[in-house]
Structures are given as C-alpha cells and as structure tokens.
Write a structure and sequence with these properties.
Helix content is 45%, strand content 22%.
Length: 288
C-alpha cells in the first residue's frame, strides 16, 4: 500500500508540473491566441433587485469565446448571482443576459434546456452524490443526457478521471477521498458533457495554497485543451491572476472589469486598490 501511495504521489507531482509548464507556455502566447472574436456571454444593462435591495444595477459586459473571466469582490456583493444569471437559474429584474446570441430568459423551455446543456458548473460545495462512487458521479450526467452505450460511458469516465489525475479513486466514495480530490471530481463531472461554457463557483474554497494552485493549473489546462469559455469566482488574488485573462470586481452594485493582472494592479479605482491589496480601510469596508 505504501508503494502504491508513493507511485500516486509521483504521478500527481509530474501531472501538476506538466500542466503548469503547458499552461505557462500557452498563456505566454497572449490572449489573442485563445480567444476568438465572437461574444458568447453578454450582460446588457442588467439590474437585480430582491425586495427593495439592489444587488446589481445597470451592469453591462461581454465575455468572448475561449476567455477566462474571473469575478472577485467582497462577500455578499453578487458574484454567485452572476453565475446564476448566466445559467438561467435567476432572471434579472431588468436588462438582458445573452448567451450564444440568445436572451436566455426569452426563449422557449426546450431552447433553454439545449442551451444549458452546453454549460457545466462546479458548485462551491461540489454537490457530489455521496451514495455514488467517484466513477458513478461522472457517469451520472452521461447516463441521464447522452444516448451512448455503457462502454462509451466508461471510456469517458476513465478519460476524465485520468485528466484530473484521480484514476485510482474510481471505485471509492466521495467521503473516502480528500477535499482536493473531491474538487477534482467535481471538475471532472462538470466537464463530462464537454460543455462550451464552464462556471466555477470558488473552485479553491477551503483548500490549502498548494492544492489551490494545483486546481487552478488543472482548470487552465482543461480549458486550453477543450477551448471552453470559463467564468469563475475566487477571492484569492493570486489564484485570480493565475486563472484569469480578464478580472472583474463585483462591488457596490457594479461590475468593474479591470483587465488582466497588469491592468488590474495599475487600476486607479480605490475599491480595486483596496480589494487586491487586502487593505482594512477604504470604500469597500464602508459599504459592509
């Protein structure tokens, strides 16, 4: 058993370092290599109000195909709401949410279902099925949605387990694997239907810094390999810089698109400066 664990550790070490080298290489080619001109997600003058509380006001931005768009900001300011709007789980009070050229709240249920099938989502708590094994968790959406044979399902399960470096855990249950492995499993299941758009709700929440970096390496590699569009939430600026082509601060009912790491660090908005530097005093702490 000790030898097997050592072998797994070596495999994961080389897997993670290989991902980091590859993602570093393709990121150095520049944004234009990965991103096509077409817009896949667009918010047009979006308002979200609950009772009398305004969460988002007159928000507009675009996300292009192949882009990695990262939302940061204080808790309770509306980051998760943005993901729910994109997924069609929540309808804006005013304005339009356009996904693949369609207003997601103005199409038929059948069209909406087809659009949602092109999306994958990793929930903050992973939302794994405790009564299913690791392999069965990945197989579940394939059996529900895809009209393919069991042999093809198992082939895909094995492929995604290999991609997230946990093939040895196929027959284990979620409570028998670590938090980092659970996160990898959640990513594998989110990608099982090979979505064009992937939504990550704080994918490194509760993980140690080393595991967090590995998870972002993994997300970067899989996004590059599948040329998917990623929208992610994180409050760790190092992970936001590691992940994002584009960073946006959600605060005070606004979404401030600050650009890449360099542009974000040069941004003169006092709210951006306070958040990215973790300052205790400033406009953001005045609104909490």
């Amino acid at each position: 058993m000790g030898a097997a664990r050592a072998l797994i550790a070596v495999y994961v070490f080389f897997f993670d370092n290989n991902i980091e080298r590859k993602t570093r290489n393709f990121n150095s080619l520049g944004l234009a290599v990965a991103i096509e001109e077409n817009v896949v997600i667009e918010f047009k003058n979006v308002d979200v109000t609950f009772d009398e509380k305004v969460v988002l006001r007159n928000v507009s931005f675009q996300i292009r195909k192949g882009e990695k768009f990262v939302l940061v900001g204080p808790s309770g300011q509306g980051k998760s709401i943005v993901l729910k709007l994109i997924a069609g789980l929540l309808e804006p009070t005013a304005g339009e949410v356009i996904v693949n050229g369609l207003n997601i709240n103005r199409i038929s249920n059948e069209e909406k279902n087809q659009l949602v099938l092109k999306m994958g989502m990793l929930f903050q708590k992973n939302a794994l099925f405790d009564s299913l094994t690791v392999g069965e968790n990945i197989a579940f959406p394939l059996r529900e949605i895809k009209k393919i044979s069991e042999k093809e399902i198992q082939k895909k399960v094995n492929y995604f387990l290999h991609e997230v470096a946990i093939p040895h855990a196929k027959n284990l249950y979620p409570d028998e694997i670590s938090g980092g492995m659970q996160k990898r499993l959640g990513i594998a299941r989110a990608l099982a239907l090979e979505p064009e758009i992937v939504l990550y709700d704080d994918p490194t929440a509760g993980l140690d810094p080393i595991t967090s970096r590995r998870i972002i390496n993994l997300i970067n590699w899989l996004q590059f390999e599948q040329n998917s569009t990623v929208v992610a939430i994180t409050n760790e600026m190092n992970r936001a810089y590691q992940l994002g082509h584009t960073i946006a601060l959600v605060a005070e009912e606004e979404i401030l698109v600050t650009g890449d790491e360099d542009d974000t660090k040069k941004n003169k908005d006092e709210r951006v400066i306070q958040f990215i530097n973790g300052k205790l005093f400033g406009p953001l702490t005045e609104i909490q």
